[in-house]
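Final report, closing paragraph on structural work. Over the funding period we assembled a curated collection of sequence-structure pairs, and we close with a single example.
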Amino acid sequence: MSAAWRGWYISKFLAGLDVTEILVLMAVLVGSLSVHEAAHAWVASLLGDPTAKRLGRLTLNPVAHVDLVGTLIFPLVAISTGLPLIGWAKPVPVDFRHLKDPRRDFAMVAAAGPLSNLVMAVVGAAAFSLLGGLEVAGGGQMLPRVVLQFVVLNVLLAVFNMVPVPPLDGGNVLMGLLPASGAAVMDRIRPYGFLVLYALMLTGVLAAIMRPVQRLVLGVLL
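Its predicted structure, as stored:
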């Protein structure tokens, strides 16, 4: 199956979710975001900052990470109405004073979240292949469809979070790679980051940036 056809097939499949599958997708989202945030906390702890661990964020328990609006209400409305999916969990706190190289280490903490989503997507894709792939999922079997949702959603989370706009993880990674002057400019943009993101979404620029990357990754995985 060509990459273009595969991408169309997946998008058409996910557009036909019923109520049960919407709830399953919400559960997948909550679980994936929990792993994402736990990965931030884990790497921060490895690099010497105990803040997240002390606050109970070094866990896969969704209760520690769920944000009522960002993790539940916004995504549920988006999935139910077909609007662009956007959501977030409680950010993991990082105390720069505990990091040996604050800029480098914070970039590593930031990268851990999207990397965890990519790892989950790879594992999910392997399981999906063992279950029979797209042809079996298209036949209506529930388990392959859920696994496909898991893969697509984690690719979406990985790609979205690596968009280089603070406060997304990609913006924080970029700040760690730029020289100090460039990082200072990015830091000044941070308070307006969500406004920038919404502007990119409403103008279609964000989708134009993300879709080719998503299709490339899904084409490789599936």
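Confidence is low (pLDDT under 50) at residues 1-10. Residues 102-130 form the longest helix (29 residues). We thank the funder for supporting this effort.
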